[in-house]
Design goal:
Elements: H1 11-21, E1 27-29, E2 35-37, E3 40-42, H2 45-52, E4 70-80, E5 91-96, E6 99-107, E7 110-122, H3 125-135, E8 142-148, E9 156-169, E10 182-194, E11 198-202, E12 206-210, E13 231-236, E14 250-254
Parallel strand pairs: 3-4
Antiparallel strand pairs: 1-2, 4-7, 5-6, 6-11, 7-10, 8-9, 9-10, 12-13, 13-14
Amino acid sequence: MLSGTHFYNKTVRKSVAVFGTLFNNIKILRPGSTEEKVPIAYGPRKKFLARINSDRSGSTAETIAIKVPRMSFEITSMEYDNESKLSRFNKRNIPIAGDLNNVNTVYQSVPYIIGMQLNVFAINQDEALQIVEQILPTFSPDYTVSIKELEGTNTVTDVPIILNSVTFNDDYEGDFETRRAIIYTLDFSMKIKFSGGTTKEGVIRKVDSFYFNDTDTSLKTNNPYGIDNENVRVSVGDDDLAPLDNTDTITTTFGFDHES
């Protein structure tokens, strides 16, 4: 049964946006002209291909053929990542602003692999290769980006993006009036993580340990603080927050009254 305070942290949406951002500054150089930025948008390959092949003569604004070169990308698959699985009992504590006695707890995230496909559309090989040759050197065959708050508030997650394959398609067989479409298809895998809800838990600020309290043993005499000082209390200062460092106060008391 699901429990805790659930949140929609838009894991897939963030990952898709980051993927598209990787390719939003690619430019081509046409002979006798300046650099031209290649547009990119999310959408199915078939939709963009249909727009490219549209008949522009007498067409309306809704059916006019799109300008090439351009790129499109889309999600093609989503599967569980068995190799990256960690214990589901792992958890991370996130401090709550203004609350010294409680923390938000997030349990181990669930790893998934999202398949992403990038399509490069062009009408000649020179423009298509200019685009592809700017992409390939970045992936060898992976490239890792850091995404903020993918697994909850105040988190940074490293997301590997792996280039799996590159395919090429040029099936032009029409006459000179038919618009040609050269397509390079690059298939990627993104290793992302989904996090569940958060639960509020109390912070342990004091620990009491009782050594040999009810046992008569000779080991009791080895206590460097005396036979009567078996009880140990470790406590953190009231104003100290996790994670602790050398500026925080940690007090250790030997032989305290266990009734206190």
